[in-house]
Amino acid sequence: MEDEDWLMLSPNPADVWGSSSEVLNREVIQLAEEGRLDARDIDVALSLATFVHDEYEEYGTRGHNKLDDKDIALAQRALAVVLARVGIQFSLPWRDFSKFRSYWLKNAGYNSWQARRIILAGFFDPVYKSLETMLEGGTGGVAEAVSPHAVTGWPRVDVEVAALRERFGTARTAQDYRDVGNRCVAVLEAVGEVVYDQEKHLREGEELPARDKSKQRLERYVEDSLAGKEKAKVRSVVRPVIELAHSVKHQTEPTRRDSGIAADATVLLVNILRRAEQDF
After folding, report:
1. 165 and 123, same structural domain?
2. Is residue 66 part of a domain?
3. 112 φ/ψ angles, rounded to the nearest 5 degrees
4. DSSP 8-state assignment for residue 210
5. CA nearest 266: which of 237, 224, 235?
6. What's the Rg (C-alpha) of the chain?
7. Fewer beta carbons below 10 Å: N end or C end of the chain?
8. Which tens digit of pLDDT belongs to each residue from 150-206?
9. Cβ contacts of residue 105 below 8 Å, gap of 6+?
């Protein structure tokens, strides 16, 4: 994606000659925030980060920014959401151009374009570095589903998946990678809590499985939702993924590869289970 993808031409009603000016394409921004663009989140994040950075740099130097306060706030919010989906935390201590100006006046940016560039670099360079590392790795962080939507529509699950992506994105040590296993388990427990319906799935004489018994909950869910001989292979996916997540959680010296495989498998299982309920 390019900077131009975030902009659109808007006619100037006051100009009898019919001129137009570039403004924020709010529809595209909303699609990015909702994960509904026809592009990988990592590519959207890199493009949108560059766009937001350049708008702030233009405002803080030459004054040639195309957006106003309201629109830069929308773009900045969408950027934070997209970055969170690929496991990168991003939070600026200002929300629009006016607040950026207040910030640089309090932080040695008065009468210095270079000082303002340095301020921006301090917040955006770590983002670029993280995104470039993911791209160089060829995986873009944790796996993304082939679904056109980047979220499942199960809010509790989406929160846990975002936390998993973030944890994997910042993991560097064996302890970190073990914690990725913890986050995988948390995702599966959240899914089990959402999909397991006591009225539908609890058999006579059985006790309600506890929240941490995700294997029991999910196996029963797929047993009912994906019944039949032709769905046997899909049903067989559930248990190995749960066991894989727990194995990383309990490993003494898990590696990035170990935790990455578990995280990928967990996210893909979430989307398989979501697809079992409805097409999306």
Report:
1. no
2. yes
3. -150, 110
4. P
5. 237
6. 23
7. C
8. 677 888 888 888 888 888 877 889 999 999 999 999 999 999 988 888 888 988 888
9. none
The torsion angles phi and psi of 125, rounded to 5 degrees, stand at -60, -40
**What DSSP state is assigned to residue 206?**
P
Tally the domains of the chain. 2
Placement of tokens 């990988």 in the chain: 40
Task: Please state the separation of Cα 243 from the chain's center in Å.
Answer: 25
Dump pLDDT digits (tens) for 131-140: 877 766 555 5
219 secondary structure, DSSP code: H
- The position carrying tokens 């708008």 is 55
Q: Identify the domain containing residue 180 by its residue range.
A: 155-277
75 lies in some domain:
yes
Beta strands in the chain (DSSP E): 7-11, 20-24
Q: How confident is the model at residue 66 (pLDDT cuts 50, 70, 90)?
A: very high
Place of tokens 């803080």: 60
DSSP 155-201: HHHHHHHHHHHHHHHH--SHHHHHHHHHHHHHHHHHHHHHH--HHHH
Domain match, 105 and 21 both: yes
For residues 127 and 83, give the distance between their C-alpha atoms in angstroms, rounded to a whole number.
9
Distance CA 208, CA 210 (A): 6
Tell me whether residue 142 is in a domain: no
73 within domain boundaries: yes
Identity (one letter) of the amino acid at 255?
A: T
Same domain for 118 and 163?
A: no
Please provide residue 21's backbone torsions phi and psi, each rounded to the nearest 5 degrees: -135, 155
d(CA 96, CA 107): 16
